[in-house]
Amino acid sequence: MTIIAGGPAPAKPSPGRLRRAGSGPTAHGAREMIPLLGAVAPFGLVVGASVAASDVDPVVGWSTAWTIYGGTAQLSAITLMDAGAPLLVLVATILVVNLRLLVYSAGLAPHWRGAPTWWRALACYLIVDPSYALGVRHAATDPAAHRAYYTGAGLILWAGWLLACGTGLVLGDRVTELLPADVVSELMLAALVAPALGDRGARRAVVVAAVVAIPACLLPLGTGSLAAGAVGVVVGLARREGR
Amino acid sequence: MNGWIAIAVLGAISYALRSVVVLGLGDRPLPPFVVRVTGLLAPAIMGAMVAGSLATGWFGHSAGAAVGAGGTLVRVVAITSGGVVAARTGSVGRALVTGVTLYVVLAELGA
C-alpha cells in the first residue's frame, strides 16, 4: 500500500490505487520475463515440432508442456516415448534431467518462508530455469512484493511456453525450415551448461560425460546420456575430493 | 504404454522434484552430498546429450540422414560459440542468436 509523504495518508485508499499498487510487482515480473520468454520460445517451437514429427499422440505430446513443463525433459520424454521406451527408462531419464529443479527449489525455499501453503504449491509448479533465475535475482525485495513478482514472471512464462509448444506442433515441419531445430536444442543445452564450467569439478564432469557419450550414443532407448552423465558425475566428484 | 499415464507419472515426478524441498523440508537445507551430486548431474547430463546428439548426427544413427563430418563441424563451431557467449554474458538469448547466426552462415558457405 502506497504511503503519501508530506501529507495525511488517506484513511481508505481507492480501489483503483489498491489495484495499481497490487499489480505493480506482478506486472514488473511479467515484463522482466518477456525477454527470457523470447529466448526460450524457439525451443518451445522445436519441442512442438518434435511432437508433430513423432508418432506420439499430438495432444499427449503437447500436454507434456503443462505436465512436465521443461523443454529438455519434454524432448527426452517425447523421443523415448516415440522409441517405445518402457516407463522405467522414462522415469529414470526425467529424474536425472530434472534433478536440477531440486536445487532450484532449495534455492528459493528460504525466500518463501511464511508464504501461504497454497501459494508455495503453485509457485513450485512454476519453477524452471528462467523463473528460478528471476526469483533469486529479486529475492531481496519485500516478501509480498517478491511473491507477486515471481507469480507474474512465472505465469507469463508458463502461458508463453504452452503457446510456443502448441505453435510448434501446428507448424510442424515448417519450424525446422525456419529454425535449424537440432542446433537450437543443442544450443539451449550448451547455454545452460556453459555457466557451470567455471567450476573445475563441473568442467571435468561435463568433458568426461561428453566424451563417454559419443560411443554411448549406441546404447538402446536413449540410455547413453544417462550412463555418460553418471560417469561424468563420478569423475567430477572424485576430482573435487582430490582423489 | 498409455501416453496419458506416462505423462501423468512424469508430471508428478517433475512436480515432486520442484516441491519436495519447499513443501516437505521447509527451512532445512539439503544434505551437502546431495547438493554436490545435483550440482554436477545436470551439467554432465546436458553435456552428454549435446555430444550424443552430435555423434548421432554424424553417424546417422538417428531417424534423420547423417550430416557427416563437415555438417557436424559446423554444428560444433556454432554450439561452442553459443556456449562461450552464454558463459560470458549469462544470456541464453544471445547464445541462441550467436549460435544460430553462425550456423546459418557457415552452412551457407559450405553448401
Beta-strand percentage range of chain B: under 5%
State mean pLDDT of chain B (0 to 100 scale).
81
Summed up, the helix count of chain A is: 12
Number of strands of chain B: 0
Query: Stretches of chain A where pLDDT falls below 50 for ≥5 residues?
Result: 1-22
Helical fraction of chain B equals over 70%
Number of helices of chain B: 4
Strand content of chain A: under 5%
Order of helices and strands of chain B: HHHH
Radius of gyration of chain A: 21 Å
Shape of chain B: elongated
Low-confidence stretches of chain B: 61-65
The assigned structural class of chain B equals mainly alpha
Q: What is the arithmetic mean of pLDDT of chain A? A: 82
Main beta-sheet annotation of chain A: none
Biggest sheet character of chain B = none
> Quick one: overall form of chain A?
globular
Assembly category: heterodimer
Q: What portion of residues of chain A is helical?
A: over 70%
Order of helices and strands of chain A: HHHHHHHHHHHH
Structural overview:
The complex is a heterodimer of chains A (243) and B (111). With 243 residues, chain A is mainly α. Chain A contains 12 helices and no strands. The longest helix of chain A has 39 residues, at 15-53. In chain A, 48% of the residues are buried. In chain A, helix 1 packs parallel to helix 3 and helix 1 (15-53) crosses helix 10. Chain B has 111 residues and is mainly α. Chain B has helices at 3-25, 32-59, 68-89, 92-110. Chain B starts with a helix and ends with a helix. Classes of the chains: A mainly alpha (243), B mainly alpha (111). Chains A and B meet through helix 1, helix 2, helix 3, helix 4 and helix 5 of A and helix 1, helix 2, helix 3 and helix 4 of B.
